[in-house]
Amino acid sequence: MPFLGQDWRSPGQSWVKTEEGWKKTTTDDTNNNVSPERFCKAEEEDCFSKENLLRSLNYDMAAKKRKKDLMNNNSKVPYFHREKWIYVHKGSTKERHGYCTLGEAFNRLDFCSAIKDTRRFNYVVRLLELIAKSQLPALSGVAQKNYMNILERVVQKVLDDQQNLRPIKELLQTLYVSLCSLVQDMGKSVLVGNINIWVHRMENIMQWHQQLDNIQIKRPTSTGMTLTDLPAGLQLNIMQCLTDGRDLVSLGQVCPELGTLTEDRLLWKKLCQYHFTDRQIRKRLMVCDKGHLEWKKMYFKLSRCYPRREQYSDTLHLCTHCHILFWKDTSHPCTANNPESCTTSLSPQDFINLFNF
Fold this sequence. Notes:
This protein is α+β, with helices and mostly antiparallel strands. Among the domains are: 109-212; 233-303, Monooxygenase; 315-345, no CATH class. It is 52% helix and 8% strand. The protein has helices at residues 27-33, 36-71, 102-108, 111-114, 118-135, 141-161, 165-183, 195-213, 232-239, 245-252, 256-261, 265-275, 278-283, 295-305, 348-353; strands spanning 13-18, 21-26, 85-87, 316-319, 324-327, 343-346. Helix 5 runs parallel beside helix 7 (165-183), helix 6 (141-161) packs parallel to helix 8 and helix 12 (265-275) packs parallel to helix 14 (295-305). The chain is elongated. The two termini are 55 Å apart. Keywords: Cytoplasm, Nucleus, Ubl conjugation pathway. InterPro entries: F-box-like_dom_sf, F-box_dom, FBX25/32. Pathway: Protein modification; protein ubiquitination. Pfam families: F-box-like.
């Protein structure tokens, strides 16, 4: 079968549009019968078609360049998907081949939008810290790049809001220590990409840490009522809402009045009972000379021995019926009669354990 190109006409033939319709003419007839106006019009149409062709080529090149920039390491735009949920499967079935990895879930669950939500911020930071401790080599190259891009957005949010400085510093310190040990172990191929890329990322981590150290907390311009203007009973009630003893210590350094309230024994007792069990507390009892329990010292001693209780305003959820992982406020195609009864909340550690095969 002969090849039919874009111009399938025989040599020497052309089609001309007339009042009666399209007519086929030869090259000789066209050269003898073409008027100056028709010739100029044909030239304009030819130039117009060439211009459209160049524009389409430019559009194609621009689209390819955007795609290349998205794949490039310098791109700050993370990968995103239309669905904000992911099907978690741990083995091959007749309907689905392969299994879901931690990196795939990390790319699909829209963590970039989650860090903008105050309810999810601490959850995402804790998850980033757990990945930095032990799961960073388990991520794919794309997931590792998304991890660094999300971390940069977290740091920028903290610099803009001037809040949550301590957990972000701890996250950066944990990640830097992990990368130092992994970079020294490059013979085991534990990281994806060139070693120079990871050295550059480690330099960025140190630079972010320096920016957080040099941040200047601005005093609010509001002249309304402050915490110290409230009665002591209300101040203690507000302090009981803090779940981290280090926050209480920092609050007590603001002024002598707050420092006296943060030494309240009942406040530290409730904090110990909130995070630890009675059995754990009995193993770490500390009694002062007057016969009273040193709840403040016991809290920090228990924190070094046992994990503290984690509480988050919003978490990832797993549908046990559909095996779909999703955020609480996003819908997923659940086929159960009562979807709420099949949904379980996942802590950051539960999320990591979900992909330990």
